[in-house]
Amino acid sequence: MRVIELASRVRTDAMRELVDAVDWAQDGVLPGDVVQALEEREATAQTVVDEGLALPHAMIEWDGEFHIVLGRSQAGVEYAAKGDAVRIIVLLVVGNGRAQTHLELLAAVAALLQGHEFRQNLSAAENVDVVRQLLAESAVQLEKPELTAVAIPRQSLMVACHAVQLAESLTAQALLLAMDHGQRIPWEPLNAWPGRLLVITAGSRHDTTHIRPDTHVFDIAHASLSRMDRANLGLLLAAANGLVDHDREVVCITGSQEQPLDSITVTRPAAHFAAVFSEPEGHTTSCIAPAVILRVLSLAIELAAEGREAHPIGAAFVIGDTRQVIRHTQQLVLNPFHGFARRLRNIQDPSLTETVKEFALIDGAFVVEADGSIRSAGTYLTPTCRVKNLAGGLGSRHQAAAAITAETRAIAVTVSQSTGTVTLFQGGHVVLTLERAAFTRW
Fold this sequence. Notes:
Elements: E1 2-5, H1 11-20, H2 31-44, E2 48-50, E3 53-54, E4 57-60, E5 66-77, E6 86-95, H3 99-112, H4 116-124, H5 128-143, H6 154-170, E7 174-178, H7 187-190, E8 196-201, E9 215-219, H8 227-240, E10 250-255, E11 261-267, H9 270-277, H10 290-306, E12 315-319, H11 322-325, E13 329-331, H12 353-359, E14 365-368, E15 374-381, H13 396-407, E16 411-415, E17 422-426, E18 429-434
Parallel strand pairs: 1-5, 3-6, 4-6, 7-8, 7-10, 8-9, 12-14
Antiparallel strand pairs: 2-3, 5-6, 10-11, 12-16, 13-15, 14-15, 16-17, 17-18
Helix pairs in contact: 1-2
């Protein structure tokens, strides 16, 4: 990653500085073409993804892979017509035909710079050499555990020890540890477990990397979720990455925030979400990328926790089998995504987060294709059947979502405006619910 000091105070000039930091001549690319591609992307949606951070990006006609340039401005760059100045701008340019690389790099850069305090340190650094040093130290911290010795509560050690014994007696396929803020990982008893270990964290930590084989760490920074829902979402991530199958037990360890570990549960992933990834006859969703499902769930959780402009809102997303889905829909407002290239409207793009949240205020659902491309927003679902076995209290949004999945091979994710519960439907049935921690301690 190249690092430069930005002299410009307005977005267009700063963008040109970032582009000029790359030697495009050796790549056979005209800088003007890169700038044009970036401006076309900005016209779709501003790429400010967090306070003081912008991620302008584009795909261009180029046989190469990618270029990343980080620009730091202590004075700040006026990036949008309204809003605070942006001090960290990361330019990402990817060669045409590398859509997955594009999305993966965007997500990685967003994750690296997600900490507000870390971005402030980069902004206040004396010069770009210090910026490079901070970035290098951050990478080292991600690879090494903290050196500070902190006592692990005896209760946590005992719970972990008993969980390992239970997992061994059940011949469990994995041991899952769902950590909350303020908790330490009891590595000593966990080292006695010879099988797969899944560690679910609530944010960036420095004690998750350990010299232990077959250990996998997943970050689920959704503090609004209950502890068991975070564990279930961790299972979903593990299944999406091929780390657990549907039929064998997983032993889960959880604890309350900043308290010792206190609970052991045994679960089978199939009980929660087998329908999402399995292939029942005539009703497969295997063509839907797991990353798309997880991204939609993440957005739904954010909407449930934050609402929009301090007001709770409901939302619905229908994913996959788009050709059949649109036969049961009606567009009553102008589709805000119509006419844009697929690469500019992929729901996995972090810069579209605020756009999706804004359009969630429109009545109707988002229709998302299997690869993550948003086909439409503000779309009314008009399925012909009615699902009769839904739980009481679920309204018309949930009824329509369940019915559309009963008539097609799509899946649907809804956000309840009244409770903030996120529900995933497939085949006309509820296969996963995620509740706000405010409604349940578990």
